[in-house]
């Protein structure tokens, strides 16, 4: 198989129109996001994830978050996950700092979070953002507003406070997809998230987009901070044991968005080759 760029690797097997959105982004959108991130002063980086599916958080998001948090720590930053109750226990497994937000938390809670951590950067990895109707909806168009904390508020506040942001998504309803919302409305016939970010990363699954960001962080820094497949496999098993489900099949099983662990391994191997 072609080695390809990390951007090309993460769009393999695309079925949700992300290859179409690629035409509206810079060619090396992932590399650009990593370059800007690595120019930030060392400090706290807030990372949000956790997408509600059938009573649980899905496997897409938390594993990419682990990859990015691990890379950040290796480069002298401190990653702090902001999420809600459906990811409870996931990040403590890997000693990643985490703060849980109540589903009905109001804007003052998010203002306090920014005041408390004073982040140098913020990253969203597969986190639902509100659409034009101020609803949170899954890929089927069903409302998950009652199961989703309004963590996208952090990203709207970040824009006002000039805190740089990255959003990673794979469908159109995630934080950051507001950057291409008109294209999604016209070409993908989905009610998109309207929340924007400074740099949008698209991928077939958001985990893969996060892996590509971490891979570029390793390449650009020259430091061995890229996650291994073995670490991913171990962590996947641990969070599935806690109730995490595949976002497509809704089953508690190893895999992401209907893709097997063999495909996950292929993506990691190809990303390693791409940055070698």
TrEMBL record:
Residues covered by the D-glutamate cyclase-like C-terminal domain: 14-272
Coiled coil, from the record: none
Entry-linked InterPro entries: GLUCM_C
Superkingdom as given in the UniProt entry: Bacteria
PANTHER family in the record: D-GLUTAMATE CYCLASE, MITOCHONDRIAL
Protein name: DUF4392 domain-containing protein
Lineage of the organism: Bacteria, Bacillati, Bacillota, Clostridia, Lachnospirales
